[in-house]
Amino acid sequence: MSMALAVRRLSRLRHFSTQVSLRSNPDARDHGPTAGKYRGDRGSSSTKSSVDAQESAKFAALSGTWWDELGPFKPLHAMNPVRLLFLRSGMCRHFKKDPISPRPLDGLTILDVGCGGGLLCEPLARMGAHVTGIDAVEENIEVAKLHAAKDPLTATILYQHTTAEQLVQEKQQFDIVAALEVIEHVPDPMDFLQSLSLLTKQDGAVVISTLNRSPTSYSLAIFAAEYILGWLPKGTHDWSKFLTPEEVALLMERASLTVRALLEEMTGMFYDPLKQTWRLADDLSVNYIAWAAKRGE
Predict the structure, then answer these.
(1) How far is it, in rounded angstroms, from Cα 200 to Cα 192?
(2) Quick check: pTM over 0.85?
(3) How far, in Å, CA of 292 to CA of 26, rounded?
(4) pLDDT per residue over 104-126, tens digit each?
(5) Is the CB of residue 123 less than 8 Å from the CB of residue 110?
């Protein structure tokens, strides 16, 4: 990535700082910064639920189609290799694992929050990780269990119909906590990220992927994908819930998670309509993915 691009991203991060503070915590207008509130002891996390009943109902209606590569989740099937490339590379670098090993994630514990039908969990398990997948939609968990049982390498995945907040109450922790294409569906992104942070071991990491709130993302991810091409059911996304990369980085910082990069650990995911494939790219205007290390208390 060019130095000029890195400087522009960092400049945008500073520019959005005040806006994000007010957006994620409206009371800050009257009571000042509240970042400290989000760095409390384990067990002091919010009891709010990250589950939006309306969003859950959408996905419950589609639960039987998770493993249909030509169905409503076709975009996720197509995107999955790129997401896995980012995850595998980041985990091997962070935990000093052998990237050319057939089981490079051997021994690592991974939590997939909002796992759906298990599209991410299964390949991670095949790479040697001890994987737990959770989802607020019970139908999704049942589909994931049935599909994983077909292969001995994925039958070890622990699927649970539960929430991140419940696992925090149980004081569970993992080396890696992933929430891919989830944060844009939760009612309170700050509380959600705080829960993910509390579920992450010290020196572990959180991985988030989502959609940028930009004119380009509205044109491509909503207008084109939902209304013109029909890749997704209409109403799958609410553009107003999308978060910019700068907002995600700032909210992660408040949750004791460090994105060292707008420089190297946040990257775009670009769809090439001619080749009908996804690739990692510097362009963060639509889809992007971020790696954040858990800071010490």
Answers:
(1) 13
(2) no
(3) 25
(4) 999 999 999 999 999 999 999 99
(5) no
Instruction: Kindly report, residue by residue over 238-271, the tens digit of the pLDDT.
Output: 888 999 999 999 999 999 998 864 445 899 999 8
In 119-167, beta strands by DSSP E? 130-135, 158-161
Q: Determine the straight-line distance between the first and last CA of the chain, rounded to whole angstroms.
A: 31
Of 265, 273, 268, give the one whose Cα is nearest residue 285. Answer: 268
3-state secondary structure 62-112: CHHHCCCCCCCCHHHHHHHHHHHHHHHHHHHHHCCCCCCCCCCCCCCEEEE
Q: Are 205 and 289 in contact (CB under 8 A)?
A: no
What one-letter code names the amino acid at 286?
V
Cα–Cα distance for residue pair 219/205, rounded to 1 Å: 32
The CA distance from 79 to 279, in Å, is 8
- Please check whether residue 108 is in contact with residue 176, taking contact to mean a CB–CB distance below 8 angstroms: yes
DSSP-based three-state secondary structure for 209: strand
Cα 114 from Cα 190, distance rounded (Å):
16
Residues in a beta bridge with 293 = 205, 258
Contact indicator for 143, 63 with CB cutoff of 8 Å: yes
- Which residue has tokens 């790696």? 291
Tokens found for residue 230:
């029909």
53's tokens: 């009943």
Residue with tokens 């988030």: 208
Rounded to 10 degrees, the C-alpha dihedral 152/156/160/164 comes to -130
CA–CA–CA angle 56, 51, 212 (5° rounding): 85
